[in-house]
Amino acid sequence: MKTAYLQLFENAKSKRKENKKFLERLKKLKPANLDEVTNELHETAFEHIDCLQCGNCCRTTGPLLKSKDIERLAKHFNQRPADFTERYLRIDEDRDYVFKKMPCPFLGTDNYCSVYEHRPGACRDYPHTQQRKIIQMLGITYHNTMICPAVAEVVEGLKKVYNK
């Protein structure tokens, strides 16, 4: 993993309390332009952050798999959904399907996803800083600052905009 990415993680960890407090305050403020600002910061971050140089999300954070995800992946492997589920998934404490173990079984040593075109919706949406109604995602955004260097950078950008 690139040194610059590691520095973003270390910075996010050292600012854990500050970031949590900031995002909680932001949720109460409910800025009208939050989606627009966050989406712009997301685009800017991903202009220089390359997921293939990191892959931390696929190594550490298992997605929740919905029925349509399981069906799509099972079809890709030419399996019955029940067989795919038995081989790769377990039910977690929230009664959701997740991978049995991490890193993701479809992550290659080169950080490429072997099922990219068929990946779960949660993987497609990650890191959630490009979505609408970001106000509803601020809790997960906080956690993602310590997983994804782009999210750590987005939150630092949000602080510059809203801590005036």
Brief summary of the model shown:
The protein has 164 residues and is mainly α. The chain contains 9 helices and 2 strands; from the N terminus they run ααααααββααα. It folds into 2 domains: 3-58 and 127-162, no CATH class; 62-114, no CATH class.
Q: What descriptive keywords fit this protein?
A:
single chain; 164 residues; mainly alpha; 2 domains; two-stranded antiparallel sheet; 9 helices; 2 strands; 4% strand
Fold and architecture overview:
With 164 residues, this protein is mostly helical. It folds into two domains: 3-58 and 127-162, no CATH class; 62-114, no CATH class. 53% of the residues lie in helices and 4% in strands. It has nine helices and two strands; from the N terminus they run H-H-H-H-H-H-E-E-H-H-H. The chain has helices spanning 3-14, 16-29, 34-45, 56-60, 67-76, 81-88, 121-125, 138-144, 149-162, and strands at residues 89-91, 97-99. The protein has a two-stranded antiparallel sheet with strand order 1-2. A hairpin with a 5-residue loop joins strand 1 (89-91) and strand 2 (97-99). The longest helix is centred in the first third of the chain and has 14 residues, at 16-29. The chain is globular, with a radius of gyration of 17 Å.
